[in-house]
Specification:
single chain; alpha+beta; Double Stranded RNA Binding Domain; 3-stranded antiparallel β-sheet
Length: about 140
C-alpha cells in the first residue's frame, strides 16, 4: 500500500505505468531505452478516495485529469526509468495529499461601525480635495 495520509492509502494495483522513449538528457542512450514514464490512476473509481477528496482533486489536477476521472502524470525529467517512476509517484502523492486537506471554513465578518465611519470620512475628505482642484478663475 502507498501511504498518502493517515486515512488514505492506495493499492499499487490501481496504478498503471507505461514506458516510452523520452527526449531530453541522456545523449545517445535516449534512442534505445524507454526511460519516460506515464502513470495513470483512476481517481473516480478508486475505493481509497472519498467523493469529497475526488471533487477537490478535480480542479487541482486540471488538464492532467481526463473526463473519465483518470489522472495521467508524465515524467521524463531524469535519465533513468526508476528515477522517473519515483518522480511520477511523488507528484501523484503530493497532488492527492493536497486534495485531502479540507478547505478552511471562512467565517463571514462585517466591518465595525468605526471602520465604516473612517471609510466615509476618508471618502468625504477625498471629495473635498478634488472639488478644490477646480478651474482657476481670473479673479484669483
Amino acid at each position: 500500500m502507498i501511504e498518502i495520509t493517515d486515512q488514505i492509502s492506495i493499492d499499487p494495483r490501481e496504478l498503471h505505468e507505461t514506458f516510452m522513449r523520452a527526449s531530453g538528457p541522456g545523449g545517445q542512450n535516449v534512442n534505445k531505452t524507454d526511460s519516460a514514464v506515464q502513470l495513470r490512476f483512476d481517481a473516480r473509481h478508486s475505493p481509497a478516495l472519498s467523493n469529497a477528496v475526488f471533487l477537490r482533486l478535480k480542479p487541482l489536477a486540471g488538464r492532467r485529469m481526463t473526463r473519465d476521472g483518470v489522472i495521467v502524470i508524465s515524467a521524463n525529467r531524469h535519465r533513468t526509468q526508476e528515477a522517473n517512476r519515483r518522480d511520477a509517484m511523488d507528484r501523484l502523492v503530493a497532488l492527492i495529499r493536497e486534495a485531502a486537506q479540507p478547505p478552511k471554513y471562512r467565517r463571514p465578518t462585517k466591518p465595525s461601525k468605526g471602520a465604516k465611519q473612517r471609510r466615509l470620512d476618508s471618502k468625504r475628505h477625498q471629495g473635498i480635495m478634488k472639488k478644490d482642484r477646480g478651474k482657476v478663475s481670473r479673479d484669483d
